[in-house]
Specification:
Layout (H helix, E strand, L loop, with lengths): L14 E11 L8 E2 L3 E3 L2 E8 L8 E9 L5 E9 L7 E8 L5 E9 L12 E10 L12 H5 L15
Antiparallel strand pairs: 1-9, 2-4, 3-4, 4-5, 5-8, 6-7, 6-9
């Protein structure tokens, strides 16, 4: 019997993505939106996009979370805060992402008149991002955990054939 490879096990819901993103200096950010690298967990890919001159606003920096290739609606808790500056900007809320609504965010995240108080000494923004994927109503009840009972939840399909006796 072969050993189980942990990278082949799907995370149990709810699961959490936690990442940090350090931008370029503010003056080098594209006013049309500066994207982060992709953050991937399971089959979900996410990007942050920062608008240093605002998005649909003129006096605040805006931050948008974008989901790529969402097929089914997903409820997520999106929390973001700045770190490394004199002040901390912080927001958290629950959003639903879907094919129709693949991005959500905070349009009035940091007042532009105070932006220097939120940046690092190198005039960069450092964001601490947490996305919690909430349990869908179609999954098991929260008090029942397959992983806790069996140590397994599922296998990722990556071209392998699995047999169950």
């Amino acid at each position: 019997m072969g050993s189980r490879d942990d990278c082949d096990v799907l995370p149990e819901e709810p699961y959490v993505l936690h990442e940090t993103w350090l931008t370029k200096p503010i003056s080098e950010l594209s006013p049309d939106g500066e994207p982060s690298n992709s953050f991937k967990i399971n089959d979900h890919t996410w990007k942050l996009i920062v608008f240093p001159k605002g998005y649909k606003t003129k006096d605040h920096l805006s931050i948008i979370l974008m989901a790529s290739k969402i097929t089914n609606s997903r409820n997520v808790t999106f929390s973001i805060k700045t770190i490394g500056g004199e002040k901390v900007a912080e927001e958290s809320t629950e959003f639903t992402f879907s094919k129709v609504v693949p991005n959500r965010g905070f349009l009035n995240f940091i007042p532009l008149s105070e932006i220097d108080q939120y940046t690092t000494k190198d005039n960069q923004l450092c964001f601490d991002l947490t996305i919690e994927f909430l349990r869908n109503s179609t999954t098991a009840k929260p008090e029942v955990s397959s992983r806790k009972l069996t140590g397994f939840v599922g296998l990722k399909p990556n071209g392998k054939t699995y047999f169950l006796n």
